[in-house]
């Protein structure tokens, strides 16, 4: 498949599990990919993997919560590859594990800054560039936590509900410009983020988390980042030309248990 020949994609959180898999998937289908992350080393690794597919890759160090840095990653994409067709708004953090009355206020703010404001800023600053191309596709990474209760993760759950809300608003406002906005809602996916949640929940024995969680996943396993990347690529592509404002669960049905 080469659904992204002559297309330019930006992926945020591209140094992490899902962002890296999405970057490589889009690149393997022909996109020139700009990998954005706050972690320089992980960007370099992702850019090498993008280039290993034969596609063009470029890295930009940016904090998605800082407006000028978001503007800069969009501008650097235009300067490097002449435009933007796809934004995968994926950077996010898990925050802490605590009952809502014990949730640290600074951590609550940080989770909302990155997971909500970062997604809004990405959409805000990419719109003009997509209008110049006559349209585009934005895929926001929400979560199954955006459609269900998240006991011990109040800020994270709130942030992902917000991403789904912004996705709907974006679809309505930007539809007339030919810009589609959708969200993916992964369940429990095998990345650094889950390692962190496992360790915070059961510091003595993180394996306990896996033992307690697997029975609640009808498919009986964690998902893999490459599986999320496949859905992101579909939504970003012209195959999904009539899909906008949608939030797709990809969670092995954990949200139904
Ligand atoms: N892993 C899961 O189970 C799971 C489930 C549902 C949703 N998600 C969502 O998927 C997205 C990717 O998560 P992941 O599992 O790949 O985790 P990850 O920790 O591997 O990747 C997240 C990436 O975001 C980057 N990042 C964090 N703050 C940033 C900032 N301010 N500016 C720029 N980059 C920043 C990190 O450096 C990291 O590379 C997140 O939005 C997460 O909430 C993950």
Please give the structural blueprint.
Layout: E1 8-12, H1 17-28, E2 32-37, H2 40-52, E3 57-61, H3 67-81, E4 86-89, H4 105-132, E5 136-141, H5 154-174, E6 179-186, H6 192-201, H7 207-213, H8 225-236, E7 247-250
Parallel strand pairs: 1-2, 1-4, 2-3, 4-5, 5-6, 6-7
Helix pairs in contact: 1-2, 1-8, 3-4, 4-5, 6-7
Bound molecules: nicotinamide-adenine-dinucleotide.
Nicotinamide-adenine-dinucleotide binds next to helix 1, helix 4 and helix 6.
Broad structural category: alpha/beta
CATH level 4 superfamily: NAD(P)-binding Rossmann-like Domain
Mean pLDDT level: 98
Which H/E pattern describes the elements? Answer: EHEHEHEHEHEHHHE
Name the beta content range: 5-15%
Q: Which geometry do the CA atoms define?
A: globular
Q: Report strand order across the widest sheet.
A: 3-2-1-4-5-6-7
Number of strands: 7
Rg from Cα: 17 Å
Using the coordinates shown, work out and report the CATH topology: Rossmann fold
Q: Largest sheet, described in full?
A: 7 strands, parallel
**Tally of contiguous helical segments:** 8
Number of domains: 1
Distance between the termini: 35 Å
Summarize the amount of helix as a percent range. Answer: 40-55%
Residue stretches low in confidence (pLDDT < 50, at least 5 long) are none
Brief characterization of the structure:
With about 260 residues, the chain is α/β, with parallel strands linked by helices.
């Amino acid at each position: 498949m080469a659904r992204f020949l002559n297309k330019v994609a930006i992926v945020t959180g591209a140094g992490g599990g899902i962002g890296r898999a999405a970057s490589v998937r889009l690149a393997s289908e022909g996109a020139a990919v700009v990998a954005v992350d706050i972690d320089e080393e992980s960007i370099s690794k992702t850019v090498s993997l993008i280039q290993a597919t034969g596609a063009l890759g470029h890295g930009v160090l940016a904090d998605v919560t800082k407006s000028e840095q978001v503007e800069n990653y969009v501008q650097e994409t235009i300067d490097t590859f002449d435009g933007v067709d796809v934004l995968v708004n994926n950077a996010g953090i898990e925050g802490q594990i605590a009952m809502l009355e014990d949730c640290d206020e600074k951590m609550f703010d940080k989770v909302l800054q990155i997971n909500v404001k970062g997604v809004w800023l990405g959409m805000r600053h990419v719109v003009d560039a997509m209008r110049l191309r006559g349209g585009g596709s934005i895929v926001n990474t929400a979560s199954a936590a955006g459609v269900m209760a998240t006991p011990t993760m109040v800020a994270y759950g709130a942030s992902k509900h917000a991403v789904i809300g912004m996705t709907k608003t974006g679809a309505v406002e930007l539809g007339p410009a030919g810009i589609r906005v959708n969200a993916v809602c992964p369940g429990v996916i095998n990345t650094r983020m889950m390692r962190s949640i496992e360790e915070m929940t059961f510091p003595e024995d993180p394996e306990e988390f896996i033992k307690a969680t697997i029975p609640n996943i009808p498919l009986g396993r964690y998902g893999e980042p490459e599986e999320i990347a496949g859905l992101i690529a579909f939504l970003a592509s012209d195959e999904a030309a009539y899909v906008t404002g949608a939030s797709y669960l990809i969670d092995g049905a954990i949200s139904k248990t």
